Amino acid sequence: MPQKRHILIVDDEPDIGAFIRDVAIDIGFEATTTHHPNNFEQLYSSDFDIVILDLMMPERDGIELLRFMASQEASAQIILISGYDSSVLHSAQKLASEQGLNVIKTLTKPILYEDLEALLSSLQFSSDNINEKTRKLSHTPTIQELQHAIAHDELQVYFQPKLAISTGKLVGVEALVRWNHPEYGLLAPDTIIPLAEQAGLMEALTSEVLRQSFQQASEWLKQGLHINIAVNMDSCSFKDLSLPEWVEEQVQKYRLHPGQIAFEVTETTLMQELVKSLDILTRLRMKEVALSIDDFGTGYSSLTQLYRIPFSEMKIDQFFVMHAITDAEALAIVKMSTLLGHELGMSVVAEGVETQETWDLLADIGCDIAQGYLIAKPMPADDLTEWILNQNQIHS
User: Fold this and answer.
1) H or E segment at 288?
2) Are strands 155-164 and 170-181 parallel, antiparallel or unpaired?
3) What letter does residue 58 receive in the DSSP assignment?
4) How far apart are the C-alpha atoms of 174 and 214, rounded to whole Å?
5) How far is 70 from 250, CA to CA, in rounded Å?
6) Rounded Cα–Cα distance for residues 154 and 391 (Å)
7) Rounded to whole angstroms, what are the CA distances from 239 to 205, 277, 279, 306, 311?
8) What is the pLDDT of residues 161-189, one digit of tens each?
9) Buried b (16+ CB within 10 A) or exposed e, 226-264
10) Digit-coded pLDDT (tens) for 250-298
11) Can you point out the beta strands (E) in the chain?
12) Buried b / exposed e across 101-136, counting CB within 10 Å, b at 16+?
């Protein structure tokens, strides 16, 4: 029998707390409720899988309680609720994320029974999150293991398709690293990247992803498939002013067109090596390498970077895309980003497209390219080749 999940409800209005508790119990949760936020420290423990937290409470507000949870390195899923405007919920969600907390949903009062029931039903008995903290702690590879993985071909590049929204045709793929760990199985970037950063191995990791990407683009060309590959670049990549020459050499070595390889860079990456980044990226564009600004809208100086650097593509961060259907502010950001990208002569990519409804909305807005689980998850090169053939995605 599946293990029941334990939910903690904190709301200063007893009626609302009781309403949420009753819905949770009906679905099958174990539920604990308090309308006294001052008791939170005594009540909270790591046994709670989910915490539903009201932001606007007298004496102590929800932000203070989030701060306490962050100090405890809480792994619980968090749902924030408030009767205040949605911008406050957005700010609280962003703050919690920056503190390492996992806010999965925000709800604005009054809360509809149907919405709450659907949300809690989707979370009950979700094995992906039960004991997640314990699982992560017991499956943490070492720096030495990562060094060995880079040197002994344990890293593998997966590819996620990007489709033109107007035609549904393949326009390229994004290269995403995976680690075939001999003990822990397939590990994702959220395990690999922090470890590489800690160990000073990002340059070696990026070089390996680039090597496999160039090689795979060449293999696809031999099969008659012209597939553009986008590679995420770290700030370490922009310390060497000879990078444009090296890329040009690789393009010639593998007999590719320069436009087949695109570099995706975030604003944070650019800020760390600003002068060298501008030098290198400008020269890469002069050599016809495509440049994409990744996670657009999440940085601190987006417009400045767009003005400085000759990007050919803008990728709207998946947070805004995934919330555009239900959130007016997220929708406004997606619309304005698309308009801005087009005005600057760039293609616009929406990340995190997971539903047909989102795809249709992006089509109405005029967004150019979609990427996300609605289309396909990242996959090995051979699987992608088969996917292309099955989807009739071959194009000239």
Assistant:
1) none
2) antiparallel
3) S
4) 13
5) 45
6) 30
7) 15, 8, 10, 21, 19
8) 999 999 999 999 999 999 998 888 888 88
9) bbbbbbbbbbbbbeeeebbeebbebbeebebebebbbbb
10) 999 999 988 899 999 887 776 666 778 889 999 999 999 999 988 786 6
11) 6-10, 30-34, 50-54, 77-82, 102-108, 155-164, 170-181, 185-187, 229-232, 261-265, 290-296, 313-316, 347-350, 369-370
12) bbbebbbeeebeeeebeebbeebbeeeebeebeeee
The residue whose two tokens read 């003005």 is: 307
Backbone phi, psi, residue 336, to 5°:
-70, -35
Helices (H) and strands (E) in the chain, counts: 17, 14
Contact 369, 171 (CB under 8 A): yes
Distance of alpha carbon 326 from its chain centroid, rounded?
A: 19
Nearest-5° Cα angle at 265, 283 to 177: 115
Residues 6+ apart with CB under 8 A from 11: 17, 20, 33, 35, 52, 53, 54, 57, 81
Q: Which residue has the tokens 């340059």?
A: 203
* Burial of 331 from C-beta contacts in 10 A (0-12 / 13-18 / 19+): middle
C-alpha 339: how far from chain center:
22
Which domains does the chain carry? 6-134 (3.40.50.2300), 141-390 (3.20.20.450)
Distance CA 142, CA 131 (A): 21
Residue pair 170/162 in contact by the 8 Å Cβ criterion: yes
Per the CB < 8 A criterion, the answer to whether 299 and 268 are in contact is yes
The encoded tokens of residue 346 equal: 């760039």
**CB burial string 352-376: b at 16+ within 10 A, e below:** bbeeeebbebbeebebbbbbbeebb
Cβ partners under 8 Å of residue 96, min gap 6: 66, 70, 78, 80, 103
pTM: 0.75
Question: What is the full DSSP assignment across 59-78?
Answer: SS-HHHHHHHHHHTT--SEE
